[in-house]
Model the fold of this input.
Amino acid sequence: MTQKEAVLAYMRDNGAITSRDAFFELGVSRLAAVISQIKKDGIEVESENKRVKTRYGETIVSRYTLT
Done:
């Protein structure tokens, strides 16, 4: 299974994916690049920026969903 196939399957099964999900669940370290490939294939993907707490304060992460 390719990274693109794995990310698509994860989004279908779980509704959304973040870079943390991609790395720990699928071993994908460059989620944005895979999402770009998916979009080039004509599949619509929506992104939402979310603030999340970290041990150092807060950061913003993207959460991708299929539309």
